[in-house]
Write a structure and sequence with these properties.
Chain lengths: ~200, ~200
């Protein structure tokens, strides 16, 4: 049985519920990769996961809610664990995780559909929510710690650095369609880090 | 009347032909922006441009040939004219042109469809051809001249720098959906140039 986000959930119910939640999120991601956001059907996701649509809508009131959680689950929560004490090492680990997702068949398909449908207001909202969430839980923490350690200046533009690193990797995969090797992102990170540390 | 690429064309025929060529290329770009590559129909492009399809196929034997030329024509040939004697000034001018294209409604739509269909082998070939052409005629020259002037080291990885600049701009427009201001790309270019000049 699925549970609503705001509900108080007894521990045993939650434990029984989680494999079902994971299954729904996996099916939603597959459907997103195959059909894109606009053509993704929540009743179809429910059917493929062996549930009725009411159960799915109870937990995720809108299609965007479902897709947002499916994307968040598939990308994992890596940055919380990243705290090597060295900015370069943290960025290399972040890049490895991001590349692993984007180079996987479903990751690449998901990215393509979301880029293609970027003009759709719901997709736009989805992208904004994901960037916001990443900014709070993820990479931004890596920069805050580097600033606290004195590795970077107080006024470092962390967003510009992240945009630059993520953009270069995206361009390499989607436009050049070349593999993102360890050599590629190490050289990239060294170049950008040197540029950002100049001040 | 249209002419084949390899044909010897009398000057007056060519001059009469060019407005027709431009019209076909404009229609092809509009159709690409609206329908994407896979659903673009050459006979429909011909009809909308007021020609029969045989005339169009005589000049562009395949759909990929037509789309390649439409894209090349819409992006212009800016880099040939870029030779300010200063790498930073050349890169700022390049960025202004690229951003102008990608932020225009048809440029953005074209980029979205090509990214969405990147797994299609013809689209993949198209992207590779465009990058190759750009690399020969365009931005690469800017780096060769900077190396010749001694502004950059002989072994500078120009491709990495271009990937990084283009990727950051693409991420800003497509993922963050934020405007690419003069401030944004000036800060970006200064950061990356400082990073690449370290050696």
């Amino acid at each position: 049985m699925l549970y609503s986000p705001g509900m108080t959930t007894p521990r045993n119910t939650k434990q029984r519920g989680e494999p079902v939640v994971r299954r729904v999120l996996e099916v939603a991601l597959e459907q997103l990769a195959t059909h894109g956001f606009e053509r993704l059907s929540v009743p179809e996701v429910a059917a493929l996961a062996g549930l009725n649509k009411t159960s799915v809508y109870r937990r995720w009131p809108t299609k965007a809610d479902l897709v947002r959680e499916a994307l968040a689950a598939s990308m994992g929560h890596t940055a919380e664990a990243l705290d090597s004490g060295d900015l370069r090492a943290d960025l290399l680990a972040l890049a490895r995780t991001a590349v692993g997702f984007v180079e996987s068949p479903s990751g690449l398909a998901v990215l393509r559909t979301l880029l293609a449908e970027g003009a759709n207001p719901e997709v736009k909202g989805l992208a904004a929510a994901m960037l916001h969430q990443q900014g709070i839980n993820g990479p931004a923490l890596v920069f805050e710690r580097a600033i606290a350690r004195g590795e970077l200046a107080q006024d470092t533009d962390a967003t510009l650095v992240l945009t630059t690193l993520a953009g270069a990797i995206m361009h390499r995969i989607l436009i050049e369609q070349s593999p993102v090797t360890e050599h590629f992102f190490t050289t990239l990170i060294d170049m950008v880090l040197f540029g950002v540390k100049r001040c």
